[in-house]
Amino acid sequence: MKHVKTLNTAMLKNTVGGCGECQTSVANQSCEN
Amino acid sequence: MIHKFSMNGVNIVMDVFSGAVHVVDEVMYDIVDKFEECGEEQIIADFSSKYSEEQLKEAISEIKELVKEEMLFTKDEYENVFANIEARNPVVKALCLHIAHDCNLKCIYCFAEEGEYHGHRSLMSTEVGKAAIDFIIKNSGSRHNLEVDFFGGEPLMNFGVVKDIVEYGREQEKLHNKNFRFTITTNGILLNDEIQDYINKNMQNVVVSLDGRKEVNDRMRPRAGGQGSYDEIVPKFQKLADSRNQTDYYIRGTFTRNNLDFMQDVLHMADLGFKQISVEPVVGTEDNQYAIREEDLPTIFAEYEKLAAEIYNRHKEGGEKDFNFFHFNVDLTGGPCVAKRLSGCGAGTEYLAVTPEGELYPCHQFVGLEEFKMGTVFEGVKTPELRSKFSNCNVYAKEECKKCWARFYCSGGCAANAHQLGGDILNPYEIGCELQRKRIECAIMIKAKAFEEAE
Hints:
By secondary structure, chain A is mostly beta strands. Chain A has no helices and 1 strand. Chain A is about 0% helix and about 15% strand. β1 of chain A pairs antiparallel with β3 of chain B.
């Protein structure tokens, strides 16, 4: 594309998640699972 | 919903419900938020004096393509996700142990009121500490990873009990197939080589407290006699940070209305050699002289933007001057799941605080507020209605959050701040929201500018 460069693809819908094993906190948290 | 902003020479468009982040040129930046409300012809007519028809048609075509690929103007499909989260059996996976309700500093802004939390001085016993370990194991269901944070007051004032609890936790985790992550927060006054060695062997994270420049720190973090703490703690913290190879710690400060030039405090800590730095706004009511007021926001926003630009430059150059700033981190590729983003810290449900006497509260900032007492580590949680209120305290339960572009990066803010300053855990603290949004913009700018320059 000429006018847009996309940093990341749609990341949210792929996670619909919830195992709860991640560390208590959100923006910088990564999921190890 | 989209959010667009321009910072440090980068135009950024965020698609809220997909999580996609786009770097765009001037044409796209100008027209993108007109796309849904105006027709194609209207956009071309409105911007024809600034851009050619060809440029505008190209940009509109790219918007349509992104919409088709579900990376722009994506619809909200997550409101019902939370119903499934609420339906889960509540488990506890993290405890904040108030090892000591006592402190050897008298910080002016401390929410714990000299470590006593609206009560009296007291130290947790080994018996209460062990009961807390038993409580979390019993109430953690199938969760494997459990967390115990040693907090205060000042936990080093009761360090023998810290060691007893760690030893007991390590014994019990083997028996119950659990994995404890121990962490500790200290003001450093009692830190010595022996304690440093113990912390390095047993604590997966350590937070040490320093507000920055000597005059800033000593004004807000005096000892009981009024003398400052800077000269005593800085060499100890430098030694501790180096002994941990400059990882798995944060040196954390608070900025107030007295130092709205807090970038100087951040850079001072970097100059001292620290690589993991957090400097955060004080939270307090406006009857306190040091409290942040709405009129301070433009100054703070400018300071955050200046700091973000400086950090970007240091990241780019690499080397000795580079450092990590807690609030400017963002994971745009492997971040947490939607369930986590909606439910946030889990205070009052998955995360509880334990007083020296073994009482349970929703988190460390609620301790001492009688109406929030939830039970004890001996009897368990006895206030299911309070737990349910916190369980329902998610992004979609808050009217302000439903309108906010930052909801998936912020998770609805801090319940304790909402209660203290908004009067209800469902009523977010507006100044905190404004600052959080600015920090998220700064974090994304740092990523976007690096991406743009690498292209």
